[in-house]
Amino acid sequence: MQRKFPMSRKLLLLLGDLGLLVVATYLAVIIVFSYTTPQEDVTKYYAMLPVMVITAGILFNINGLFSLSRKKFSELLLSLAVSLFNLFIIMMAMSFLMREFSYSRGVLVLTTVLQFGLIGSWKYLFWNAEKATVVPKNALLIGNEDECISVINKLNAQPQLNCKVRYICNDCWTEPWEKVADDIDEVIICSDMSLKGKAKIVHFCNGIGKEVVLIPDVYGLFCSGVELDKIDDIPIFRPKNLRPSLEQRSLKRLLDIAVSATALVITWPIMLMVAIAIKLDGHGPILFSQVRTGRDETEFKVYKFRSMLHNAEKLTGPVLATDNDPRITKLGRFMRATRLDELPQIFNVLFGDMSIVGPRPERPFFVKQFKEDIPEYFYRHNVKPGITGLAQVYGKYNTTPYNKLIYDLMYIQKCNVLTDLVIMLQTVRVLVTKSSTEGVKGKQKKIDLSRYEINELS
């Protein structure tokens, strides 16, 4: 079985990261002020080091920089760049607020560059060392055929996970999956399995020391937030109501107003340039409005910069965007890739129709379809829709509606100001990730499952 990442290694990685943050600051100060006459008092820069180190540690943890072995190095570099960019902005803001202390922008810029170079090199050495110790895992996949094919395709697309499906079982009651236990390291249980079947598999795997991975369903999500109670001496679970309290909604609204007002002040020049570019690009309005479903299924108009041809759905009706969608203009592709088309939704947040963080608002046409296919879909309307959300941070545009619903309901369970701040910081990484904007694809790649059958193997 593959060993988990030891705590001693995580501590070494953390100490190395924070130590190099300090070294980069000292080097930047020395380089910038070594030729300055008269010499500036540099002790004030070192006084800010504790704040920088603590902030960086929080940002590194939020962006997953202390878990290396299951990621591509390009992902780690991207997360590092995003973390240091966030750190740069925070330190600039703090130096601005502390008016008695003028923090040199030259020092801050050079510090960020040196931090990226030094910590990036340190991460690369550690990442290579971790890769050398990782033992590839063989997995038994239990579930229906369609879900098994989906999981295999996803694992094939993520080779850095070092997990290979060796066997597939479609029915844990009739197929002898227990006999291959010695050949596997992990059991992946799909969401379609019955509760009794899941209990049987988990009990067996715990008894022989095998890892278990559960793909969640909505019922399992309800159970993850239960409160313990009793009827006389009978223990009972009370699932939490998937609806934020009045206090949570009030604090969230204050955060929305503060963030959207600040964002409007910062981004209005960008919005002006985008509006001019759309007008010069061709005929049609600059803004695009569309009816969406909000909290408690109240309809409202969402605003975006137009990224498609004018009257794109006149002949087709409501259709989700696909890869290489011919309705999207060249400028529109750039705006979608950089999320510039979403900027007018800042006004939706100020008006109170949306939040900065929450499930993405969907059109009533699709909401009706999704509710017919997924009865639990209506729970996502217990909160205001958002510009970004947990489904946008962990999923993609083409993530299935059911998987997006799982992310959205997980967010509603933990809906608070701290969760919103973390998701806002993580969204920066999504903005520069191309795969997150991929359109809806066609049918998934077919796989011959017969080679994974247990009864064909001796």
Describe the structure.
- By secondary structure, the chain is α/β, with parallel strands linked by helices.
- The chain folds into three domains: 7-133, no CATH class; 137-241 and 448-456, Rossmann fold (3-Layer(aba) Sandwich), CATH 3.40.50; 246-437, no CATH class.
- It contains 15 helices and ten strands.
- The strands form four sheets. Strands 2-1-3-4 form a four-stranded parallel sheet, with helices on both faces. A two-stranded antiparallel ribbon has the order 5-6. The chain has a two-stranded antiparallel sheet with strand order 7-8.
- Helix 3 packs antiparallel against helix 4 and helix 4 (73-97) packs antiparallel against helix 5 (105-133).
- The two termini are 22 Å apart.
- The mean pLDDT is 85.
By DSSP (H or I, 4+ residues per run), the number of helices equals 15
Bulk shape? globular
Q: Outline the low-pLDDT stretches.
A: none
Strand order of the largest sheet: 2-1-3-4
Largest sheet: 4 strands, parallel
Report how far apart the termini are. Answer: 22 Å
The rounded Rg comes to: 25 Å
Beta-strand percentage?
Answer: 5-15%
What's the helix-strand series? HHHHHEHEEHEHEEHEEHHEHEHHH
Helix content: 40-55%
What's the total number of strands? 10
Q: SS-based structural class? A: alpha/beta
Compute the average pLDDT.
Answer: 85
